[in-house]
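User: hey, got a sec? need CABIT domain-containing protein folded
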Amino acid sequence: MEPLSFQEYILSLDIASLPRVLKVCSGVYFQGSVYEVSGRECCLSTGDLMKITGLCLQKVTCRDPETGLATELPLNFKGHFQPSRDKLSYTSLKKLTRTRPAGLQDMPFSFTSAVDLTMDGWVIPKGQPISLLSMARHEGQEFANCTTTGQDGQHLLCLPVSLQGQFYECTRHQSYTLSQVLQSEALRGQRLKCSALGRHSLLLCPVYEVEAIMHMRKEVVKIPSTLEVDVEDVTEVSQHIHFIKPLMLSEVLGLEGAFPLQAEILEGPEYPPIFKNDWIPHLQKGQKIQIHGKSCAWRILASSSKGRRGSRHFLLSSTYQGKFRRRPQEFPTVFDLTASLGKGECLRVVVTKDCESPEEDLPSLSMGDRLEVLHLTKTQVCRQAEHKSIDVLLCSRSSGEDEESEQLMLPLHLEGGFVEEVSDSRRYSLPEIVEQLQLPCEVKVATKDSSLANDILGSFSALRLEARITETFLVTSLCEALSVSFQIPPQWLDMALFFTEEPASSQTPLTDMSKVEELTESFYYHLLKLLPSNEAPPPRPPKRRDFRDKAGTQLSGAKEVTEKPKPLPPLSKLKCTPEESMLPSLKPRNAKSLSAVRSSPNEYSPHQIGSQMAPKPKKPFKEARDVNVSDGSEHDYELIDDDLIKTIDKMQKAVLHY
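Assistant: Yep! Here you go:
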């Protein structure tokens, strides 16, 4: 087929022959140019292939070929059209039977030939009417059953639809609707008349939105038929071509009943690695993988105890076959003890260091005290001569076996050290831990998983099981090693791929490499943000009374902490007194001397008014005074670098010069 403009090809296209494969021949100004037409984006390059799958009529323009005037017709135009010529011409019998206007394809109908037809030694003279009765197929070929009446009587004919010639319909003065004209190849390119539009001959110019499939395009491409490119129909020689439709691995999760299947990776994961393992480096462009299906296993997020290299983090599959023993948990504050209240079991802890309560009305704790956590309650405390209600944890305390226990209330913000008393020596599997214990909990591997060549979990003295994760994973294998599988989480490790036409193997993987996956530290903290959390933030401890009293005595003439502080005076008028030596001073008393300058305290210094932390004792600066500094000065200054002094002198001279 010779190349045609895209618009000419679409106008001559038989919709019944779809889909058709086209090759872009020319008309692209730059290779790979992106065209945006009517808000739609399409990219066509010379040599690109597209498979036309459908047409959608956008508008119809009615043009007068003599004056050039054009008018857009509504798609529901009610007028009727008639050909300017009496007869419609067809170049083959196939076109006569398939391209007649819609609604006029009922049989029988009559036609004539412009030349004599010779069939089986019998000649049908030109102009003699022939009636087409029906269509039939024999040995893969299509035929038209016809009848004609000549001088010697009526004859039955069987004409192949591939018969070439010049044929005309016998029907005259037939009117056609707009839809019939657009669906007829014979009428679309002819001049028509319509009484509703005037007496002149008209040409109808429809514009279609062409739906096509292209290589590496995820969605169906929609191209206007007026795009100025030349195309060639290569359907007959392109039957073996497979149009690649890229998919994201996360989209594969929505497929039902399609597994197993083979795919090829188009682009590897864009994100930083989330696992530290041997199979992630293989997920690169061009790698073929087989997806066996979805994994129904859940996972446990776990962290090891801190060592010389810090903590390590893992995802443990529910198929992990190792056994665990419980370890005592450590709680740094009373607030952390409240997390155990929902377990439904009694929690007993031992105090590991003395804890002094910041509330005068509440008790303190001593190292060695044994506590049994009871429940949360509220109590009244006195703060700044005001009674306030706070949350407290009710516990039962006993210091020895002979002493009776007493109930005491502990504020949630009390900092101390608590270690759980554990007398459970039972071995638990992961499903048993999830069912019988509450996360988070501390465990130690008692029995390693024998199916793993190297169970790294057994090398840690303690593991903290933090949360259960129920994300869906895909069981995958490399095509060159189908007996070994690993599990990919598409929500966290997405990548582009396409399905190949190769049949998937039915081999079941024997080895699972994803029972224990070590996480990178960055992904671990990212995963913590994704996990749901309903925990309330810990309570804010009250201000310390001793600090408030000390701050009030050190600042002479200072107002209440709640009062807004006055702005500082200009530096030139700022005078320091011995009582105010704690306030920032940005300029020495002797302004003319630049040999020694006092450094200003940090703006976050604990000596500021309103600070909530008690000031830490600091060693006084060593006396460092220059001869130009007054001996009566009560301020100490830090020596500054000699180079800085020279720089300041140069700046002064430059200012005086100007």
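Quick note: Confidence is low (pLDDT under 50) at residues 547-634. Let me know if you need anything else on CABIT domain-containing protein.
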